[in-house]
Amino acid sequence: MAEKTILKRETNLDFNKPKMYKVILLNDDYTTMDFVVEILITVFHKNAADATKIMLDVHQKGRGIVGVYTYDIARTKIALVEKMATEREFPLAAVMEPE
After folding, report:
1. pLDDT at 1 exceeding the cut of 60
2. What is the domain count for the chain?
3. Are 69 and 38 in contact (CB under 8 A)?
4. Mind listing the pLDDT tens digit for each residue in 50-85?
């Protein structure tokens, strides 16, 4: 009976963390504060207190960091914000910046 030889293959898997992006809402003179809070709760899953704090940052500082996501998730969330804002006729804008 022939002896089976088991070949061991050494694997050196090196996974890099994906690049992360901050999603930022930008202030404008027309979008209501209530709508910004609605966006933060529905799109970004913030609780009411956190949504209000971020909305006040947007209103007072001109921009508010909503979260940090991978590229694809950030782009998807920005597209959803733009879609919802357009449907409600608000000029709300969201951008992403590398972290």
Report:
1. no
2. 1
3. no
4. 999 999 999 999 999 999 999 999 999 999 999 999
- As a whole number of angstroms, the distance between CA 72 and CA 43 comes to 15
Q: Which residues of 1-99 form beta strands (DSSP E)?
A: 20-26, 63-70, 93-98
d(CA 67, CA 65): 6
Question: Is 92 domain-assigned?
Answer: yes
* Interatomic CA distance for residues 29 and 88, integer angstroms: 15
Cα 43 from Cα 77, distance rounded (Å): 7
**CATH number of the domain bearing residue 91:** 3.30.1390.10
Q: What is the pTM of this model?
A: 0.83
Do 34 and 48 touch, CB atoms closer than 8 A? no
